[in-house]
Amino acid sequence: MAPPTETLTAERILEATEEVLRRHGPAKATVVDVARALGVSHGSVYRHFRTKAALREAVTKRWLDRTSEKLAVIVAGDGTPEDRLRAWLAALFEAKRHKAGDDPELFATYTVLTDESGTAVGEHLADLTSQLTRIIQDGVTAGAFTAPDPAATARAVFQATGRFHDPGYAREWQQPGVEEEFTAVVDLLLRGLLT
Amino acid sequence: MAPPTETLTAERILEATEEVLRRHGPAKATVVDVARALGVSHGSVYRHFRTKAALREAVTKRWLDRTSEKLAVIVAGDGTPEDRLRAWLAALFEAKRHKAGDDPELFATYTVLTDESGTAVGEHLADLTSQLTRIIQDGVTAGAFTAPDPAATARAVFQATGRFHDPGYAREWQQPGVEEEFTAVVDLLLRGLLT
DNA sequence: GGACTGACAGATATTGAAATCTGTCAGCTG
DNA sequence: CAGCTGACAGATTTCAATATCTGTCAGTCC
Predict the structure, then answer these.
(1) A81 membership: H or E segment, kind and range
(2) Contact, A165 vs A92, CB < 8 A?
(3) Chain B positions touching chain A (beta carbons under 8 Å)
(4) Same domain, B112 and B158
(5) Do the record's keywords include Transcription (chains A, B) (predicted)?
(6) Is the pLDDT of residue B153 over 80?
């Protein structure tokens, strides 16, 4: 299928794995399938990834990092802390909701992957709350927010909005009225945050 | 096993079903098992419940209603709205956490039941948010809370605290630091609610 | 000699036949 | 005759055999 003459890199294997996962789903995607898609033997794949689990986790990490990077742009933006906080939460919700609604099967695939991923998800969540902490810290410094412990507050905000980013709730993101519910929660949290 | 001479009532069937579920788990609990525990034929069970699903849902409803009733006592209590809101949320969290930690298998069983239950869970959630609405409405009337739409605010509070009552998060309720996280979220929400 | 292959052992998944379960109902029983 | 039984058909689950996959490694090929 793919040009078998290029050198085999971790990157090419990850791309092929994404494609195989997209086609076959998480239950039926095998290392043999990935190798076949690349025109190599499956032994070669094991030269770059110690186990199938490690390969899947690397794919997961790439996928999660793409979201982190988009959100980092908002953190570094130049609006007021309130604006950036609202924009950040809305962007996170919108990104997830779009993925879940646009291609439910692929989203389900990645939900399975994140569930089995040991550390990748934990690191991703730590990364996101650290971004949130930055925004809240900025707000405190500017005198717009009250938060004795910005990191703890960031965790609280992240957890309180869980219903709008946790994949477990994906089914409800398509129902009418979610927008309003999201706004209600964010408004309530911001009222608690603003001085 | 059970006295086969008493008259067969829906209530006795529900008790036997709970016991069978506790013993065998949700996957292996059959209507035949329930009938055997009662010393009757399985046809008799179908005289009181149209289907196995209806029987399971009735058991689920009973279980959920027990929680609702405990919380209703707090709603009707005589503390300040803030105290009652804090107590209500803490009681909900504590009840769930206790059940999940005390007998994880039974909790897993009921998690499966609630997942398959069509309307019982929806009604339970509606009941809980209606209790919350009552407390918040009281707070608004007393001038302690600001909430243009108490019902919408109740939903927001309920959803924002989902991590501390949604069974999907049960695993994390046992980890150290959850208490603090719960307090952080509730404090933030109350700051947003108080005038 | 560094990258790759392919045969292999043990682990995991698939399959289809046999067993069990659900829901019905004609008939028994007290 | 109201409540219960147990045999039954179709649906679902179990189980064991069969097939496939994972991870290794001695050997091949530039």
Answers:
(1) helix A81-102
(2) yes
(3) 152-153, 155-157, 159-163, 166, 168, 180-181, 184-185, 187-193
(4) yes
(5) yes
(6) yes
